[in-house]
Amino acid sequence: MTAGSWVRSSPVAAGLAAARARLPAGALELACHAAVPVAVDAGLLHLLRINFFLDPPAVLPFEAEAALLLSPVFREVGEDLYEIDPTLRDALLASLVARFGPERPARVAVLLEQYTDQHPTWHTQPELEHAQRLTALNLVDPARAADWLAANRTSAGGPALTREWFVAMTGRLRPRTSLDDRLAKALTAADAPSLELRLSAVAELGELALLPGTDVRAIALQLERTTRSDPDLRPLAGDVLETLKRLVPPPPRRPLVEESADGLQAVPFPTLYGIDPLTFDPAATWTTPGNLTVPIGTDPDGRPVLLDLREPGHGGTGPHGLVVGAVGSGKSELLRTLIIGLAVTNSPAELNILPVDFRGGATFAGLETLPHLAGLALDLGDDLSLVDRFKDVVQGEVVRRQEPFTERRPHLLVVVDEFDAMLTTDPSLIETFGTICRHGRALGIHLLLAGQRVQRGWLRGLEADLSLRIALRTGSASESQDAIGTPDASALPYGPGHGYLRTRDDAPHRFRAAYVSGPYPPPPPTWDDVFDPYRRPRADTLLDLLVRAMAGQGGPVHQVWLPPLPKELALGALPADGVVIGEVDIPREHRRRPFTIDLSGASGHLAIIGGRRSGKTTALLTVVTALSRTMRPYSVYCIGGGLGSLIDLPVVIDVFEPWDDLVATTIASLRRHPSPYTVLVVDGWNSVRDRYPDLGELLRGRQTVIVAADERWNRFDEADLAEFGTMIELRLDEPETSEISAHDARQLWRDEPGRALTGDGRRRLQIALPISELGGSHEAFVRELAADRRAEPLRRVRLGTFESDGAEFAVDFAADPHLLVFGGLPEDRLRVRQAIERSVSGEIVSPDQAERLAEELRQSTGTRRAGPDLWMLADLWVLADGDRARLSALSSWLVHGRDLRLHLIVFARSSADNPVVSELSSLAVPVVVLPADPTRRATGELLAAGHRHPARKFALDPPIPTADEPAALFGFDPLTFDPEQAWSVPGNMTVPVGTDPDGNPVLLDLRDPGEGGTGPHGVLLDATGSDRTGLLRTIVLGLALTNSPADLNILVVDLDEGSGFAGLESLPHLAGLVLGTGSAPSLIERFEEVVAGEIDRRRQPAAGRLPRLLIVVDKPSRLDATRPSILDTLIDVCRIGPSVGIHLLVNMPTVRARLLGGLSDYLTFRLMAGDLETSDPSAALEEGYLWSATDDSRRTFQVRLLPDLLAARLAGLGGPVHQIWLPPLPEVVALGDLPADGVTIGLVDLPREHRQAPLTLDLSGHVAIVGERGSGTTTALQTVVLALARRGEPCHVYCLGGGLNTIAGLPFVGGVFHRDDDPGLRRLVAFLKRRPAGEGPPVVVVVDNWRRVMRHCPEIRDLLFLGDHVRLVTTCPEWVGYRSDLASMDTLVELSLEDPTTSRFSVDDARRIQLSRPGHGQTDGRGRVQLAAPTREVGGNHHAYIGELADAWSGGWAPRVEPDLRLRIGVYEDDGSEAVLDFAQDPHLIIEGTGAVVEQFLAVIADWADGYMFRGGAADVLDLRDILRSRQPSRTVSAQDLLMRTWWTGAEMWVVTSEVGPDAVGPMEPVLPFLPQAHDLGFHLVLARDSTQDEPSLAARELSDLNTPAVVFTDAAMTLDGRPVRLDVQRS
Fold it and tell me: What CATH number belongs to 964-1210?
């Protein structure tokens, strides 16, 4: 058969295709009715139309009658007499039953009988009249019709009918094959091995598809699959499919709520409320105040079921209620319906609603813009601190409503979904619910709790208050009993929305809920929906329409629940009035507000405590940046390595490293000259406080404000801590040490950096990031603030503090544009000059440019004096110190300085020094007098303008480091330094470290002695023991200044978190920064591997020319104390280094030098730094000596340090550097950030290879993941399954474990079985064993807790040996749990272990793996790993990512796990093969015989059957009937579900019974109609009957008609379908 010929080859197909093409829609359905009579005339056809096709949805016009009679479907057989084409009649009759149900033919028959009675013309035609009547009788009572036909065939007194008539009528009355049976056989044959069978099956499917009432979805899917997979049938199947799509309308989409098998249908919400959603106006329904009575559905009689939230005193049944329903029962939809119903009938002024969802938020999705909402509390389970927040919110609302008020407050409905999970997580929530119940009646608060189940005792004390009880379908009778007092809810149908409502002492009332989540109006179906059943064109739901209509209506609603604090805030988005550093959450007051710190009075000092990576240093950056935003005259000094970025802020005087000599000077100056606007910021309070004891006196003086930060509370002694008026606690490494609240501190553990507790212990704080907007940079914000500050009309320059009161000494150049500075030491004049240059904006002009400036002023006088536009012009600044001769050109302009924005600052010896000085004196400008006495350095006097007030003495601010010494040592000016020029000479390993007594540079040369150097390795010894690294930094920075990254790389190792090298992070030479190794032994071991790997890399012949590598180790003695083997690693570096270009420089106190051990033998130079005559740690780092082993020489020198600003000049220059040390694995990795090629589940750290690689599972073998509880094993399995989804290759996954339900929605997941589901586990094992090897995609079985699953189902072990097509990914809390099965595991991953000594890899590494870091572990032979979280991005939503991957999946669906329905009963005696009863192929069985052997055989089957057993009693049969009805597929079940039999879930249903006599099985009749569909419904009838009975029962006849296999017991033997069987099965 070829494409295009299939229609012509079948008269039925040709007739149907012609009818479909020519007839109006619905006419073919009318033809199905006309196929019942033997013949019709125009009157009968008209009667059929007006009886069955006048009401929607099937409405046919009058013209359809004529079109149908004239179509190829009919042929004329007499005057005004037509009959259906005989080739089509049987098909149309079968279609009538399939399309309209088995009752429709009988109704047509009644109509035919009545029409025949009133049609006298037919009375003259006996054969036609009797044929019509007999046809009608056969449809109403087939037995009577058969009896009449038999009696009159042989009766002499019967009608005068011919023998041919009887033969024709006998054939006409025979039973016909149903469409369902034809379809089932055709679908089966379409996959047959025989090409001929497949060809005829495809043609049969095409014919069936043209008939009304056929499952066109299943047919279309089969044809589409055949087109793709069967090349021989592709043309034919494609042609049939195109014809189908052209002539047959697509089937409807599956509705949200299925039709109910018990006849109780869901009434549409608009009908229930009497509204039209498309024109809905809330003003029309908000007219009745306080209308808390709403319909939620209808009862079996069609009457509305009302939910009344009013209290009993007002005629209601509230005010509180409980809703319980299992998964799939429609609980979420009922809550949405209830909320929308209340919103439709109540304005926001009458009712507010607070939805609360513990898990996710899908229940209340779409309600975000509902004007009644007083908040939307979602995902409380993801952050348990939100549960505490909910308690505070409720308590605050109760208190608020108890306060006196004049206006009428709206009712508040609190709807809590998943309350059972909330109580399980935090049982104390029962008190919060109790508070609502106790006070709600009087305060207008209503509580509605909803959950999947409720257990006795959970609602202790609340049972009487929860007067409204709704139970949807429950998981057990006991849950129903606890919810509504009866077990009835456990027997409700499986469709959503079925439930019982009980109010106080009333009996439960049955109802079916309305729903609001379906599309409105429903979009028309398309054929694309058939082939992609999960395609859902975006259409408005009823909920969307109603919420949109109400959005923005009504007045504002008091927000009880505000959104929680964001994880990130930008400081620029907060107000600048006051020192605002973040936002604080005050849930009891239902508000969030900016958090302002008070830096005045007793509250002045601020302490910030936070563990590592808690955002402590960032908080300090935020505080200082906030100070800059206030526009107040703050002067800020910063101590800390991470605060260097603040230097450009105008309020910041300077930033010091903790060891900087200027720190002590600054503290002393601040003590002598305190000011309330001076702020000292200290990062690392404890170490700075120990180094500078005077800091305590400054703290207690309370004049200078101190902002201090440290890691733990015990870093502050009690006396100091008492001085801090404001305290902020970030996340702590040990929450139990919290001084505010250990409970709240534990909840900060998983939060983002910056989340904190305030000192009063009542508030959560989110400290803002020091950026202008989210995504911006801190540096850009600093530049923006600096520009804003300098562009202000007030051009104030701070110079110091007044000695009399500590107030700020600043020059206001807006009021007095010029300044005279008399006298002073050069360094003091430099301080004044630097202060001005750093603080002002505009153009700074040197004195030799005075004449040019004067000419420009002449040319632009009009512009610069143009009033409003003056602010757009830059200020002009002339600073003259020494060369004042050329200033006379500006003399005439000085008087106009304020208008022209011209400023002249002159440093002179006296007022007679120069005419310009005299001119300035005559203008009465301010005068600063600096003493020339060296003993009075950094002081001076201010003479006010015109000398109108007495002089005031002041102290200058500390100086800014100068650039003189770098220029002397290196021959360049740091401000004009050109790195490219300095790097032009390759291999320059010489760096000056100071000057000798003659002023000559002392050089450290890291080259080998053979090349004239002092290297290659050495040690820097600190004589003071203060561990200062200033000289070490100078060596590192000096080498970077003279060598490009292509010639020199640097690896820095610092025990103390890198504070000694802060500011050098931007050096392009860095091959890594190894920080904080002293507190993490694992990092020291990692460092050893990194070094060994680098040595190996440089030894490779193909390595080529590599840059030299300098390894700088700060305080290796501490490393040695933590891990002694580090010394061996450093010795290897020294021993092998010269041959591979590696240099080593270590820094340690002199007193620890003896710990160098064998390393001393390899060190070719020693540098001694510090005051050689004292061991005082506070002594200045001034002297040192350099000793060289080459010539045993020793050179003394004065230490000269390089300024850190040079490092910034190098940033970004040079090519990329090979990173030897990568940052350790992050604590959290998102799966979405990893590559999707392969089953990538995390990152693996490969320090020896200097890289971190994706961790990809090799699923060619089994996988074992071991970790204690809380280590992330279950999450790891979720990640594995999502990684399979990202890979995109077809596979089938089956999951065993209760924690894996979240991934059940993925299309390739064929099932999730609880570990206690013994039958399900056994069924899965049997299913996979039956699965032919190599057929279909590979199978992955995911087992959570192998040991526990094995305890319930030992057969699971068999899956280890099924071959390559089944792979297991398993977890277990400990390795011993696998026992001998561990030998079958190919890939091993080890997370945190309860007993690290049981590690399979490294006990030392196992001890270092923290339980607080889920997913961190080690793997076989590959090192440390971090498994990814199953989210798209860090902090993302797991469920949303699953939905995204499910939508993108194109690899097909996993088959459902069917039970093993094959029972071996013995062997055939004729050939010895096994005799098997296959209930999957033939769902029923007849057993014929009597006696004990039959009883025994029935017992064997009953014991073996896996599922629900019904013994055949009347009650059992009715229950079974209801279950089978609920399993029947509706017309909207997708074809995919039909093919996979996934539209229902549950166990197989068995009836194993026997009959004695024909009438004994009368009770079985209710389920007999389901026998033909038994395979699809999971139904099996095993019937034993007495073969000696003459007449079989109705059940036996039905089974026989279905060709049911029969087992026959006789005295001689047992046979199965006629073949003798030797029975060898016994009852277990």
Answer: 3.40.50.300
